[in-house]
Amino acid sequence: MQERTSATSGPGDRTSDRARRFIDALRRAEDARDPGPLVELFAEDCELQSLAVASPMTGRDGARRFWSAYLSSFAVVRSRFDRVTEADGLAVLEWTTTVKLGSGDEAAYRGVTIVEFTGDAVRRFRTYYDSAALERRARRP
């Protein structure tokens, strides 16, 4: 088992090409508010799930719906990856995301994403995060 671990911001970054492509595509999608760069990375038979969806979304159409919903949930969104570990076609990404809500309030929340690759394509995507951080901010008067 070959493992690579790194934070993704330093010059000595050893993040794998697949994890790096995913992170770069997410950043492009967040900046442009366009899910296209991310959707291109997903396999035709992919599966995506998060705390926000009751059952997995499947296929590239599901990936487009998933990422479109994510991007439209916030006025501004930016993710920072604190640690990335990849071994045997599985990447674990620890992150902090800062958002601006429709109300103009800013919030930050942390989470972990698990990405399974088949070749260079994302086959399964699971994300787990602190939804309470967003709920507290959204309910503030």
Structural description of this entry:
With 141 residues, the protein is α+β, with helices and mostly antiparallel strands. It has a single domain (14-139), classed as Nuclear Transport Factor 2, Chain: A (Roll), CATH 3.10.450.50. The chain has four helices and seven strands; from the N terminus they run E-H-H-E-E-H-E-E-E-E-H. It has helices at 17-32, 36-39, 59-72, 131-139; strands spanning 3-6, 42-50, 57-58, 76-87, 90-100, 106-118, 121-129. Strands 1-4-5-6-7-2-3 form a seven-stranded mixed β-sheet. Mean pLDDT is 86; it is low at 1-14.
How is the topology of this model organized?
Blueprint: E1 3-6, H1 17-32, H2 36-39, E2 42-50, E3 57-58, H3 59-72, E4 76-87, E5 90-100, E6 106-118, E7 121-129, H4 131-139
Parallel strand pairs: 2-7
Antiparallel strand pairs: 1-4, 2-3, 4-5, 5-6, 6-7
Largest beta sheet: strand ordering = 1-4-5-6-7-2-3
Strand content: 35-45%
User: Mind telling me the C-alpha Rg?
Assistant: 15 Å
Number of helices: 4
Estimated helix fraction = 25-40%
